[in-house]
Every structure is written in C-alpha cells, then in structure tokens.
Amino acid sequence: MWDLRDLFRQLGQTIQARPVLTLLFAIGLVGVAITGAAQIESVTGNEAFVGSNPTLDTYQKTFDRGSMATLVRGDVSEPATMRAIDRYDRRLSQTENVERVISPADRVRREYGRIPDSQAKIRAVIGTSDSTIVTTVLSTDLSQQETRPVYTRATEARDWAQFPSDIEVTITGQPAFSAQLSALIQQSTQQLLGLAVGLMIIALFFLFRGVRLRLLPIVAVFTGVIWTFGAMGYTSVPNSTLTSAVFPILIGLGIDYSVQFHERYEEELSDGPPKEALPKALGGIGPPVLIAVIAAALGFGATWFSTIGTPAFVWFAQTSIFGVLLTFVAAILILLPLLTLYTRWRRPDEASSDTPPSPDTNDQQTHDAASTASADIGTMGQILGRISRVMASHPFAVLGIALVLTTGGFYAGSDLDTVADTEDFIPQDLPALTDLQQFRSETGGGSSVQYSVLVSGDQLQDPETLRWMERYRAVAVGKPLITGMETPATMIKEYNNGTLPETEAGVDQTLDQIPVGEKQRFYKDGYAHITVIGAQNMNTQEQLDLLDNVEKATALSQPPAGVEAELTGQAAAATPAIVSQIEQRNFTTGLGVVLVFVALLLYYRNLLRAVAPLVPMLFVIGWQNLYMAALSIPVSPLGASLGAMTVGIGAEYTIIVMERYFEEVKQAGISRLDAVETAGARVGKAISVSGLTTIFGFSALTLSPFPMLADFGFLTVGVIFLTLVAAIATLPPTLVVLGRLADTIAELRTAEPAQSQVIDQRNE
C-alpha cells in the first residue's frame, strides 16, 4: 500500500505550524478564481450538443446564417403600422452582425419610394393580412454570444418604432431563445447554489449536533465552488444546462469530504494535544477520502471519455472533476487551518505546549473517549450493527435477493422512456419557447423543420450537376417525413422560365440575373447548399428517420463523379449525439466500474479489497432502473451518466465500512460476524449521516426550473439512498463470502506443497 498516510501526516504538520499562511494562500487562490470566473460564457440549445467537424465548420462559415423573426399581428396594411415596421426595419438594419432585414415595408418602398398614407395603396402591394413577418438575417458563423446583442437591439428598436397600441409584436428565433435561456441558466445556477447551501446549513445544524463549528464545512465547500468557477473560466468550459447541475452535486460531495476531516479532527483532539491532533487526523482520514475523491473523479471521467465529441457532456464531466478535486483541496486548506486557529484561541495552553499529558490525564482522556464512543454509537449505531450482522449471517440469501432485484432492474431499464429533444430539457413556460412555438404554428414550422445538405466538388454549376439536384429532390420528396427540398436548381429554374439551361453558358447567364443575396443562399465560396424541409412536430425517432431518409435519398440519386453531398448543421447533428449518449449508458457505466476497480487495485494491491467495495455499487446500478420505473423518470442525457457517477460517489461509503471491517477482523479472537457488527455500528451511523447530508445537497436539483435537472435531482437523491442501503445491507455479506473464498484459496495453496511432499516421499 502506498505510504499516503505519512504524506498526509506531514501535510497536517505543515498546516498546524502555519495555519495563517495556509489561509492566506487559499484566499489568494479565491482572487485568482474570481478573475477566471469572469471569463465564463453560456452556451445553449443544439450548439451545446454538437461537436466540431470539418463539414459542419465549412457549412457554418459559408451558409449558416442565423435568423431572427419578428411576428407582427394586427392590421398590417394600416399606414401607421407599416410606418412602424419601416422604422423598425431601418433601425435594426444598422445593427452589427445583421446582414439584412426583410420586411413588407421593403416592397412598399420599392413600389412608391415611401410609405404612402393610403391603406388601399399598401394593400395593393402586400394584400390583406392580419399578420406579417419581419426576418432579420444575420452574418454567417456567429457564436451565440455574438447573436444575443442582436436580440437586445431588436427589443430596443421595437420600442423605438412606436407600433400602434392594437398591434402585437413578438420577437422570436434563435437569438431571442439563446438570450433568454442564457439568462435563465445563470439565474438557475445562482438559485441552485443558494438552495444547496441553505439545505446544507439545515442538515449540518440538525445532523451534526455536538460538533464545534459544525457550519464551518460550508465555508470550505463554498471556497471550493468559487475555485471551480475559476477553473471553468481559465479552461474555457462554458456554463450550460448540464454544467449548472454540477454545483449542487459538488456541495453535497464537498460537505461530505469536509465533514470527514472535521469529525476525525474532533476525535483526535479528544485523545491528545492539539499539536498532535491535526497530523494524526489527516494521516488517518486523508488517504481513504482521497481514494473516494479519485473514485468520484474517475466516475465522471468515464462520462468524459465516452462522450468525446459531444460538448455538453464533456463540459459536465470536466466541471465535475474540477469540483470534486477542488472541494477536497478546500477542505484541507480552509477547514483545517480555521479549526487549528479556533483551537489555539480556545485552548492556548494545550495548543502551544509540547508537554505530554500526565498519566492521570491520559487515563481520564481514555475513559472520556470510551464513554464518548459508546455514546456516539447510540441506538442507531446498535441497530445498524445488528442489521449488518443479520445480513452477514445469511450471505447467500441476501446476495441472491439483491441479484434478483438487480437483474429485474436491468430488464426494466430497456423499457424506460427517453428524453432527447433539447427543447424538452428547458422550462416549457419560457417566453422565448412559447413565442417560438406560436411562430412555428403560424408559419408552418419555420427553421425548425429545415435541414441542410452541403454539396462540394467541381462543376457545381454544371448542367449535369443541376440535373442531379433535380433527381435528388424527386427521390427525397417521395420519402416519408420529407415534405420539400430547395436546391440551386430550384432557384435557377425560377429565373429561367421553369427550366434548366442546357449549357454552362446558359447557367452563367441565368445566375447573373439573380440578386446576390438570393444567390448566396445556394452558392458561396465554391460550395452549394440544399435545404431539406421536414414534417412538422416530429418526435425524436421521426427526426432520426428523416435524417436516415435523406442519407438514403443521396445514395439513390447517384451524385455525379467528384460531387459529394453531406447532411450537416446543428439540428442534424444534435439529436443523434444525444440519442447516442443515452444508448451507450451501459458502456459509460461499465467504463466507470473498470476505472474505479483499477484505481482500488493499484491502491490496495489486493484483489479482494478492490472487488468488495464495487459489488454493492453493481447492485445499485440495477436497482436505480426499478426506482426510475416506479417514479416514471425518463432517461435523459444527464441521467445516462448516473451509473458511472454512482460507482464513483458510492465507493466512499463502501470503502469506509470495508476498512473498518478489516481493522476489526485483524484483532485476535474477533470473528467475521463480530467484525461486521462492529463496523456497522461504528461507521454505519457516520456514513448514514454523511449520506443524508449529501442527499440534502443533491435535493436542491429537484427544485430546478429545468425539467431535465429536476428529474436528475429526484434520481440522484434516490440513488444515494440506495447506495447507503447497499453499503449497510449487501457489503457485510459480500465481505464474508469473499473472506471465505480467500480462506479456501489459501488452504488449497497450503495443501499443494504438502501433497507434493507426500508424493515425493512415496516415490523415494
């Protein structure tokens, strides 16, 4: 076993000798972190789930012009309304990153040179309508941060344009959606942090009675959270719907780490002088807590590795890893120095004295410690110890029942509902979402039903290529869920009397007649753009089917040699990525199990001790599916990572119980059942209280306005509870069975040399 205890003991001696310097260093890191946190940006919607690839990057630079729609409802042919639309159009056209604004006022101005005072003249141009749309076309390849000011400018222009009071003006589209959602994510992150801290205060106040400064762990955890924000800023990890879920989790886990240090320090302080208490406490509790931190980080690392290429999941995993490591460090650099200074203030003589206590004092401390330990066990500890013994007395029955439930859970997991539509991840009453849905209902879906195909190669304006595009359109529109297609050939036919030119010269002549803005929708920088129009209100499976139909249509239409057509765009990439993450959740979980097992094996260098803590976690992975089925919790992309998280987070409880078990079983005259009962009684209460405190932190997620985060909150609360049950109910029989197996193997190894010796003697 690595000599981590000496390293932690030396660290404890350093902090004990220089607590003020340690605190100043930690506070300095807070200042550095605040500077980094100021650099955090927010990413929302499909962009958070779409990784970079060459085809997508090319498409975004050439054709991906974001747009914003302004829906004007009322009698738009009224001169006062049309003049307001004209003012709005002109004002918004001057905004940075706006390429052009298309409105009915454009047509009226072209006809009359101005907006006339006659409603009849206006109707002669635009007809009679009770609504119209003003479309704002943005520049290509803009980030979400660059589009959000356009929405702000649009709201200002709407107010400045002074629309008549009976006219309703709604601004919608991706910039509006992104701006409102970004603000909501920031607000939600702050609220969840506040709720988690408040719940932690309640938990510490009521569950850790009798401990001095029992609210101090909050200070350490909050410092760790600030450091985590700083790490996000410096490593360019943005805030998103998924990363906002990390912080209540970190508060729950960070409190656990701090409480472990706090309780052990108090325990050592009751047995010896303060100068010795901190090194001894940190040397004793530091290694197992560090292993728990590494296990949790590896659980999140499994999510990172299995979702490379899908940004939102990678950001979630990265933020979680930063958080568990930094809250662990904060517990050491903030909590322990403060406890040291407090002890020096309350007990100055003992803190500065190197004189060992007298024998009478030692006897009294031993008696007091024994009395305290007995009191600490209490009724709850005795009950947990007895439960552990009963479970261990019937190992095969207990493990058999657990295995049956686990098997049933894996079967139930295949029938769970899934959530893969990014719009289902957000509050359904978000104004931008309701405006967007209303806009789609009035416009036939808008951009939500449009998918893009990037065409590359030589001779994209050649008549043969244009004829292929017509074949492509004919094949695609004949397939289910595809209702239309716009291609460069469609545009050229429109400007050539409904036919395709037979020669390249004819194509060039037609293209010269087309306005530049219209032409750049289909041709730019040596690439061509095709738009596929899908059915309205498609569910996730229908979207996947549509994408598959587009790919099949591409193959069936047989593009000319040297021409490639690739389906691309954020809408086409996001849904498959999310579905893939959900479908490979078993792989993510398995990877988490393997990583944690390897870490335990390297640390303990003992197969039994590496396997034992993981057996209860395997049970929980199956049980959580039964829990989800009972509460009708669907599998979301975030929930898909929970299996790996469960292994990483829950390993702490099982490791603590296992280490106490082996500590007891080493003593002479102690049977396995006695050791199990003592371990359950001594640490069962501690991990139960620790687990309940963690549940308080996680439960803040249940109050999130984001449905996905709220479901994840209910899921994590249930899984942590199941983890505690597994640690107390299934680990004791697991330890007994593995112990018997180890004894049998040892006996066989002992018997083999003896048998060989007998055979040799007979041969002689």
Structural commentary:
The chain is an alpha+beta fold and 764 residues long. It has four domains: 187 residues, Up-down Bundle (Multidrug efflux transporter AcrB transmembrane fold), CATH 1.20.1640; 117 residues, 2-Layer Sandwich (Alpha-Beta Plaits); 222 residues, Multidrug efflux transporter AcrB transmembrane fold, CATH 1.20.1640.10; 140 residues, no CATH class. 69% of the residues lie in helices and 8% in strands. The chain has 29 helices and nine strands. The strands form two sheets. Strands 5, 6, 7, 8 and 9 form a five-stranded antiparallel β-sheet that branches. It has a four-stranded antiparallel β-sheet with strand order 2-3-1-4. Strand 7 and strand 8 form a beta hairpin. Helix 14 crosses helix 29 and helix 15 crosses helix 29. The protein starts with a helix and ends with a helix. About 3% of the residues have low confidence.
Question: Which helices and strands appear, and what pairs or packs with what?
Answer:
Elements: H1 4-17, H2 19-37, H3 54-62, E1 65-73, H4 79-93, E2 98-102, H5 104-112, H6 119-126, E3 131-140, H7 144-161, E4 168-173, H8 174-207, H9 216-234, H10 246-269, H11 274-306, H12 311-346, H13 348-352, H14 359-393, H15 395-413, H16 431-443, E5 450-457, H17 463-477, E6 482-486, H18 488-494, H19 504-513, H20 516-519, E7 523-524, E8 527-534, H21 540-557, E9 563-568, H22 570-583, H23 585-604, H24 607-611, H25 614-631, H26 642-665, H27 672-699, H28 707-729, H29 731-763
Antiparallel strand pairs: 1-3, 1-4, 2-3, 5-8, 5-9, 6-8, 7-8
Helix pairs in contact: 1-11, 2-9, 2-12, 4-7, 7-8, 8-10, 8-16, 8-27, 9-10, 9-12, 10-11, 10-12, 10-27, 11-12, 11-23, 11-26, 14-27, 14-29, 15-25, 15-29, 17-21, 23-26, 25-26, 25-28, 26-27, 26-28, 27-28, 27-29
Domain SSD: 213-341, 645-737
Biased composition (Polar residues): 360-373
Subcellular location: Cell membrane
